[in-house]
Design brief:
5-stranded antiparallel beta sheet; alpha+beta; 5 helices; single chain; elongated
């Protein structure tokens, strides 16, 4: 059971990172948090053992077996607590965003910057490109989005949200059309983007 939950957790982590935008990303983020909470729950049975071996250490003194077991069980409990805190702190905003839906935000200013990413300092050819969108929204909040692409010109020919962000950011002038993001407010995940 533990192996299945761990496998689902790591698979959902991968799926969360595989997509940059949309409700699907938010759903995978929420699923990852649920799997993390389940993994934390699997650590609960180790708490009594950790307490028991720690008591043995304090009552009997030097006992290598009890010390090793107490350390191991305590470590498992601490990992469980950390997993629970991370899962809850990320899962609650994701659940609220899923429940309430995205909010439309107009981009009032946008700055685009692209920089090459090299796989090693000695490699002269970029392995990918980091595309950074720095936006100010209509509520005066700042929003930074980083999208990695394989090729330098990938965003120029991109469709969907990536293409809309690129075109809306590059052609952003006060007199031109506005870039509008459907944004989940707590997780800062873009559900959709359009130029109006």
């Amino acid at each position: 059971m533990t192996i299945v939950i761990a496998a689902l957790f790591f698979m959902s982590l991968g799926m969360t990172q595989a997509t940059d935008f949309g409700t699907v990303k938010l759903q995978w983020q929420f699923a990852t948090c649920l799997f993390g909470l389940a993994a934390a729950g699997l650590c609960i049975p180790f708490v009594p053992a950790a307490v028991r071996y720690t008591r043995i250490l304090f009552t009997e003194g030097e006992n290598d077996s009890a010390e090793t077991r107490a350390s191991g069980y305590t470590l498992i409990c601490l990992v469980g607590i950390a997993a629970a805190v991370i899962a809850i702190s990320n899962g609650v905003p994701a659940a609220r965003d899923l429940n309430e839906g995205p909010q439309a935000r107009t981009v009032t200013s946008c700055y685009f910057h692209q920089s090459p990413v090299k796989s090693s300092p000695t490699n002269t050819t970029p392995s990918s490109y980091k595309n950074e969108f720095r936006m100010t929204l209509d509520d005066k909040s700042k929003f930074v989005l980083v999208v990695e692409t394989d090729k330098q010109n990938d965003l120029q020919s991109a469709s969907g949200i990536r293409g809309t962000l690129y075109n809306g950011c590059l052609s952003h002038h006060p007199s031109s059309k506005k870039l509008v993001l459907d944004l989940y407010p707590r997780t800062q995940i873009i559900a959709d983007a359009r130029i109006v």
